[in-house]
Fold Amidohydrolase-related domain-containing protein.
Amino acid sequence: MRLHLRGRGLPDGEEVQWWVHDGVLSAEPISNADTAFDGGWILPGLVDAHCHVGLGPGGPTSVEEAVEQAETERDVGALLLRDAGSPVDTRSFDDRDDLPRIIRAGRHLARPKRYMPGLPIDIEDESQLPVYVAEQARFGDGWVKLVGDWIDRGVGDLAPLWSDEVLVEAIAAAHAEGARVTAHVFGEDALPGLIKAGIDCIEHGTGITEDTIDLMLEHGTALVPTLINIENFPGIADKAAKYPTYAKHMRDLYASCHRRVAAAHEAGVPVFAGTDAGGMVAHGRIGDEITALRRVGMTPTEALGAACWDARAWLRRPALTHGASADLLCFRSDPREVGVANPDLVLLRGRVWG
């Protein structure tokens, strides 16, 4: 299939033309190409930087259900997914031309009874964390996922899972394998140790403070706030009446979340879009996350970039460049104004999906 596309690119808005042959983009004209799109906006496929393919509301899914999740993401234009921990091995999806590209972080790493049952690899002896981190780094696609904090029922509140000392060793072990590390963190207390240990990204980050924002800037730590998932905090608190301190903490984190994320963005912390789809959030909602980022002070261009060209650069994946895979979206109207929910054309590996 030979295709030709013409429109305006983002973020600069300049006119662009692309040709597609054998699933690859070309900046040079290709003969006998059919014009598939002419007039409008052309941008790289969207990115969901916190997505769980193979995880559903009840826990691990079947492979067939995981395929349906990936198809849902594809159909809304999310063509690159960073799977931030999954109990299901989806590496076979790489052989399919009809599914989004997935960057895997392997399995969640946690302490026993300190995360959702059935999802993580439970590590009894924290001194073994560096060994498990190196193993998941080799299994994944350049990322490792730690559970940084969770409710400690003995304390009755959120508490860190790991000592600062072992985090230094574990993150160094991932970096030695060429992988980056991210962590689930809701509260305040786990953040300084993770950031000082050199972690590359914080997921959720509802407990960030002025001090931890300064640390993130010092260490170059990114933030994926999963804002639409934070909307579940009041419901989580309502179900935690047995732990009133924890329940109050979750409500307080919910109430201050937008202010804290806005402060991080304003200070210059790199912020990227991720939905946390797969558990309490349905797949296919990256457009809602982009809208939520605008509510914490991002401009329309910044919010879209956080789920598109900027996110691709951060994840070290190509956007629209000569020789790259033809993974792109086309919109008749400016997606910064009308949103991204209904792309007029979805092109994945050069194949038209919408």
